[in-house]
Amino acid sequence: MNSTLLESPMIAEAREVGVRCRGVVKEFGDGETRIRVLHEIDVDVLTSELTLLVGPSGCGKTTLISIIAGLLDPTEGEVELFGELQSALRGRRLVDFRAANVGFVFQQYNLLPALTAAENVSVPLLIQGWARAKALIRANEVLEQVGLSDKFHSRPSQLSGGQQQRVAIARALVHGPRLLVCDEPTAALDAHSGRTVMELLKQVAVEPGRSVIVVTHDSRVLEYGDRTIEMADGRVTSVS
Ligand SMILES: Nc1ncnc2c1ncn2[C@@H]1O[C@H](COP(=O)(O)OP(=O)(O)OP(=O)(O)O)[C@@H](O)[C@H]1O
């Protein structure tokens, strides 16, 4: 794996708050069917760390990371990403800020089956208007960083689950986002592939100025967290 993903001795000094949630409330529904699924969440996520978000099914983990990543708006409260208060950004500026600063990795890799690994990774750059040749060069660099330099031309069906997840991570990182949000990234993987993916996410997380949040049910990955936020019933119950 390329050394740009690896930790430098200075990083421990460089931790700062990447994500700050204050009083975040989320309600769904209207009238009598209205339910509150997040209750005034106050939590910070530091840079240069891998933060795990854990808790029982239905406790609000996906809702919270969706709000942090800007896929959902909070009903009340504020989210600040890298010093930018999200409620202060509007319209195009908000969309552009999130596109530049947030990458997503999901349990299902969501790769386009007809495209090669390199083409899949280049998609976010093409959407941003990059020329195809330049986007493919950058995609190949990132595939190299995630240990897949021999798979540039492979289609998803020719890759193992763990390799597909690494392509999905490369795609999420190709535009250099400061926040990487991963929802159950190892849930579909065997133990060995799960470890490889978590080791990769850990390497990505230690980059200066970057935060990585991993939502997980998978007890096998708990050892990879620098910090663990535990939730229950829509509340943060511990940070350790
Ligand atoms: N769009 C929605 N409309 C209504 N209720 C919702 C909606 N999205 C989530 N919920 C409810 O909010 C609660 C929290 O859901 P969420 O998906 O955030 O939990 P989770 O901790 O991620 O669960 P899991 O670990 O099973 O994925 C659940 O009770 C869920 O049913």
Automatic annotation (TrEMBL):
> What organism is this sequence from?
Lacipirellula parvula
Record's Gene Ontology CC terms? Answer: membrane protein complex; plasma membrane
Q: Which UniProt keywords apply?
A: ATP-binding, Nucleotide-binding, Transport
Q: Which residues form the ABC transporter domain?
A: 19-239
InterPro entries to which the protein is assigned, alphabetical: AAA+_ATPase, ABC_transporter-like_ATP-bd, ABC_transporter-like_CS, ABC_transpr_LolD-like, MacB-like_ATP-bd, P-loop_NTPase
- A single MF term (Gene Ontology): ATP binding
Q: Specify the domain of life of the species encoding this protein.
A: Bacteria
Q: Which family does it belong to?
A: Belongs to the ABC transporter superfamily. Macrolide exporter (TC 3.A.1.122) family.
Q: What is this protein called?
A: ATPase
Q: Which Pfam families match?
A: ABC_tran
